[in-house]
Every structure is written in C-alpha cells, then in structure tokens.
Amino acid sequence: MSDGTVRANIKSGSEVNIVLKEDQDTGYLTWGIVRDILTNSKTHPHGIKVRLTTREVGRVKEILK
User: Fold this and answer.
1) Name one Pfam family in it (predicted).
2) Domain count of the chain?
3) What is the number of other CB atoms lying within 10 angstroms of the CB of residue 9?
4) Cα–Cα distance measured from residue 11 to residue 26, given in angstroms and rounded to the nearest whole number
5) So what's the pLDDT on residue 44?
6) CATH, residue 17
7) Is 27 left (phi over 0), alpha (psi -120 to 50) or beta?
8) Furthest-apart CA pair in the chain: how many Å?
9) Stretch 10-29: mean pLDDT, rounded?
C-alpha cells in the first residue's frame, strides 16, 4: 500500500480507498478506481482528491494497486 498524500503515487486507473466528504467524521472508506485526479499540488496532508469511475469524489487514504 502506498501513501495517498503524494500525487505521483496515484494514476488514472489506480485501485484506491477514499474517504468521501460526508464520511470524514467516521473515516469510512469507499473502494474504487481513479478516473480523474483533482488535486494539482504535488502533495496534500489529508490525501490527494480524486474522482472515481463511479463519479464519487474524495481523498485517497490507501492505494491498493
């Protein structure tokens, strides 16, 4: 598992677990495939923001593949 706070670790098509905005309090993770990377900076302390193929948007907590 790679670090979800570094943009270079994430590619379109990556399999990830993200935390959705509404799940930030609970930390509930949502699995999906990255469609778009929305964060422009090289790193982000809370995780790189991505859009999944399901159109859900959240911050990457775990990179699975």
Assistant:
1) DUF2196
2) 1
3) 15
4) 26
5) 95
6) 2.30.30
7) left
8) 27
9) 96
2 within domain boundaries: no
Task: List the structure tokens of 42.
Answer: 């090289």
Beta bridge partners of 17: 31, 62
* Residue 1, domain member (yes or no): no
What pLDDT score does 1 carry?
63
Closest Cα partner for 64 from 23, 20, 10, 22? 10
Our CA dihedral for 47, 27, 21, 31, rounded to 10 degrees, sits at: 70
* 58 neighbors 20 (Cβ within 8 angstroms): yes
> Would the pTM of this model clear 0.90, i.e. be above it?
yes
Containing domain of residue 45, as a range?
7-63
**Cα–Cα distance list, 14 to 19, 25, 32, 46 (Å):** 15, 25, 8, 18
